Predict the 3D structure of the following.
Amino acid sequence: MRVIPFGGVNEIGGNKFYVEARDEGLFIDFGISYATKREYFGGFIRPKKYAFLASLLRCGVIPAISDIYDDNLFDPLGLSKEILQSSIRLNTLGVIISHPHMDHYGHLSLLKDELPIFMGESTFKITLTRELTKSAKTVEDRVFLDRERKVERFRTGMSLNISSIRIIPIHVDHSVPGSYGFVIHTPEGSIAYSGDLRLHGPKSHFTHEFTERIQHEGAQTLMLEGTRIEESNDITEHDVFLRLVEIFQRAQHGLVVVLTGITDYDRFISIANAAMKCSRITAVPLRMAAMLEVFYELGMLPKELLPGAGNVVAYIERKGSGSLELDRNYDRWERNYVNQLREKGADPIFDVDLSRRQNRYVMVMNSPDDVFDLIFVKPSEGSVFVYSSSEPHNEEQEIDKQRVENWLRVLGMSSIQVHASGHAGRTELIDILRKTTPKKILPIHSEKPSLFNKLVQEAGIDCKVVEMSRCSELRL
Ligand SMILES: [Zn+2]
Ligand SMILES: [Zn+2]
């Protein structure tokens, strides 16, 4: 068996692992490598449409592999064909996706339609909703829209037979619904893949099921994520809930605003429950409301937290000219969705409503630039802004956070950070190692793979750490 990491080693995210036996193989994830992409693109420097694939290939943001990319769509000048002519050729059976985060599935958009994609039922619905409700769509953003993909969907515990390779997806606890780890059996050996996981969230039993299954299936090589290998504090989602209750109570007559990710369902549940406890209604942007409907459909959200059920309401953000005329300024899906909400008596609200009754609401935002909406809401004294996503981890995010802080100063709002990570910390990783007792570990999704040696020592298990480097094959 051989493993070729085309992304996801010595970096957080960008996972693209090719696992092969007897001359056929599969990609495990095909995510965007943000770290590499930021080196070449950002600000005013964006890839041109006519050289999209070629420019990404040329600087190594995506790996040069023949016959996997959609060069009809992305290569009108034939530039990438030239680059790919002498590149590695693989007998690829398809791509299997662990969960709906862009650093794991985002660059599926560049692959040709004929390449089969295997993904969880929830991952499919979440990625599709994300695309349908996004206003600005570049070629890079579109995995499914206007494409004819071959998608096979799976659920936890199923066994997928893809030619001679058998894959068992097992759900894990992470910050988005539908996250999976895999046990992969090939004719030349077995390997387990963690995806992104943690043990301190509300679904920690999912991760335990995964680690038990690794043992049961006898996989002795483990590809394990190490995003937070250096961190030992493990704030749980329940801690976040308790902190939010405290903050919401202290805000008294002011408005509470919470900035959080659109797909972090555990966080949304903590926010909405804390709001209920403090007799506030949670107001979410339309796009998040549409996402919550999907979570409910998937059985991941209780009915009382659906938009319009009394505790949660959708709010319509201003856009376009700024007038609230649906026909003029809003996309078709927004108009349809607002009509649907109105039909079931769940009328959405506007910034004027939030402004008028600030002590009634917790306003949720999904993007730092939504901070401008607060100019119209005019937060009253005592209003508070809660950052409830991960701390900035690059320079651009630092600058953005400083900009938000500047706006909050103008608006007279205080701010606070309350967050529990989607990734296992040091002690949880040790726990996972003791439960799975692998003979070999391949560190992935980590900027510090060398720290795995100490981790193994501390776990007290007999295990070899095998570090990998991008694009160089590893024989197992
Ligand atoms: Zn990730
Ligand atoms: Zn993730």
Summary: The chain has two domains: 2-231+423-475, 237-417. The chain has a mean pLDDT of 95. The longest strand covers residues 165-171. Residues 2-231+423-475 form a domain with the Metallo-beta-lactamase; Chain A fold (CATH 3.60.15.10).
